[in-house]
Records
---
Amino acid sequence: MRTLTITIIYLISLNVFSQKIKTQYFFINEKDSLIQKQESTKENKFQGYKIINEDRIIKEYIRSSKIDADDIEIDVFDSLSFTYNEKNDIIVTHSFIKNLNIIRTRKEFFKRNVDFDETKNRFIFIIPIKCNKYILRKVRPLISE
Amino acid sequence: MYKKLVENSNINKILENFQDGNKPSQFNLKFVMSTSLGNLTNATTIKSGNTFIIKINQNRAENKNTVLTIARTIIHEGIHARLREFAVREGSNETSFPGVYDYFRRFKKNWDHQQMAEHYRSTIAEGLKEYDNGQHSDSFYNALAWEGLSEIKDLNGNHDRIYTEAWKKLSATEKQEVLDIIIEEKQNGNKICQ
């Protein structure tokens, strides 16, 4: 009952208190190899996802192992990195997600051309777990400079 | 914006290594607007021969970022260029630039982001404050200085992302305060260059 109450309050808060910001729900297909999860380890506590867009090629610049050498330009697929804190995860049943407007595939994720910054959208990843339940995982996009 | 920035004392200090005064600079600094960077990459600094090229994501600069976050990006990349110039100038070694070589020894290809996160955020914040005529609090400029220096790409290739050592030192509350300020600026900041 307590979990149910917390879940309801959480879902309402996403919609009521941030009318300016839309919530984008993205279903994580763990069989899609272009959705890469980085787990926290002893050496590196970072947790996140890298979502790869194979329809867009960008330039990346590889550093040499020598401090004074030139950088090397390569072509790679564009990707988006997101981070999360699993302490903020919420577990819900199928009945809670069935009426959500969910982006089901990675292709659709990029095709929708959503603004990936936090100014207009909040991102919740949906991860299926056992017994017909799902994790709702709030993620934050990462900007590089 | 660039013209206003170069009148800024902090930026001038960053760029002085590339200026041709009585003694021509060994290196060039070039700014380029790019359409080939990643969707969530504001900019990058590249070394090519004797030129440091700062590539700025044109789409993000024109459509997404605020005036202050663009200024921050330019200062951030300028520091990249300056630090890398220290490392490659004639005669550069562990004695002339001990900090640079220490960070390289410890962090390899991530050396400059780690060094910037630890020692150059105040430079970025002060530069922003001067550019902005101090219209906000110091904590505001300090928070903006964190973007690009908290969760960085691992250029050593061991992971996708790592935390900088400086970011790890913050408490959860401090981190959230920084993130809240950054989001607030992105949502409500001025997008028109004056």
---
Amino acid sequence: MSGMVIVAGPFGLRVGEATGLLTLIEAPDLSPPGAAGLCADLRPHGFDHLRPDLVPLALARREGQGLRLLALAMRVDAHRLHFWCPPGAAVMVDEADLAPRLAALFQRHHLALNNFECNLHPIAQPDQPLRCWRLAPAAVGADLLPALLDWAEGGHSGVMLWPGNELWHLAGTVTLMRQLAGPDLLAVQAGGRRKKPAFDSPLWTVERFAPDARGQMRRRAEESFATDLQGHDAAPEIAAAHLTGEGWRRLGHLHRTTDRLGLECLTAGTLIEMDLTRYHGTEGGLAIWLGLRATASRDPADPGAAALDRLAAALTAAFPGLCNGPPLTEEPLMTEISRLTHPAAEKEPA
Amino acid sequence: MTADPCPAQIRLAFIAPSGSGKSSALDALRDRLATLGLRVTSLKLAEPLYRLQGSFYATAGRQIAEKAQDQVLLETIATQLRRIDPAALIRDFERRLHQCQADVVLNDDLRDDVTDGPRLRALGFRTVRIVTAETERLRRLTGRQDPTVVECSPLDRQIARIPADFVLCNSAGPEVLSRQIAGLAAHLVTAAPSSRGVA
């Protein structure tokens, strides 16, 4: 018996309008949440998530004569609830004291609980942990993306699909450049525009790939919000030079498509992006990469590396079964991509 | 057009608005390539314009240094010359190019993206764009003491449309530029056809 209990009551308790009684529903078959939270569908337990007087508000576990609060309701959707445990919220309470204690916790952590899509702690670039694997095109069929979605939704290695950011599709043309005075690679892509009556300036995104101590290519992205590039709509190298302060050699253009899964780690609160990226060379070449990058966390003390490594290990173990193909080969991200622009473009200086 | 007598020659055109440091970058690259044993020369598209500038000043009874730029006059002459024959400058340039036996030919006054630019690319020129912060560029321009100055020329828009193979950032001082120049020189030498002997 897990001793798990669902604490339900009026939604107003979450926002300081504490009225009405709380109801405790035993849920012995409900698994305890991870250290950081749980995404659950409680409709099988008889709940209508959106019934205003009986909203699941918290998960708890009976310990002795009291209750240990394990997670608070952060996001309430018709088909899903996201419970999260803010640091310091896993407290013991008496059942008789539950309503005011729960209301106080919601009040204390209201910024995080009510702003679940934006109250995040970004992991500063270039420290974002990054792992990537090159995929053989033959191993990547149309069913790989659904398989990855199912795998992520299954809660493997303590992650779930990040509610509201489950799936993105990104496409665009990147101009690839090689650093003149070093080994770094740059991918420059046109973005939106900054437009007012007095100016109309293109925005460019510059992604820099530089090797770290482990031989992995770390990625840093920057957008040209603070740089006036008016009139330079067709010159990615100008954006590259202004944003990096360095010289570059143009390698060519690639068309890039990315299917991005947003993942949230339930043991640490880490937010991870899983990218399945295809680079199409102008002469018909194709390179496919699978990447994981920790971008932010709900926990300000979480650097993201541990969660990323756990997920990478789980993905490496599971991948051959997802695509009926060979195991993942970890490889610096841009080794092959630069050769897609032109087979002879990449000659390293003596 | 005659066949190119030096197909293995390294040819670079530096492009940027006035005051960006094209001449400085070109000089630095020339020095670097010379230390690698290459014979380097510079050819200007505007050589006929400078000759005509001299004639104007002589006719006006004034003197002007050989390399000084009366930018208003030079742009006016260029505009009228192109009106008469758009290919006048590039034809003169190509004639002088075919007489040049150097290992490397550098140019720093390409501004036209319609006639001169495409023809230079067809002649094997690769373009090097110099990027400088606008405040720095204007500071250099006013400090150069040219007889006249055009701070924001409409020709700059043409320059922006010329595709670039390399870009150098000249906003951070000579040391940073020097590192970029060294990398560029190393790439040019490594990627050059082996039929040309290099020390």
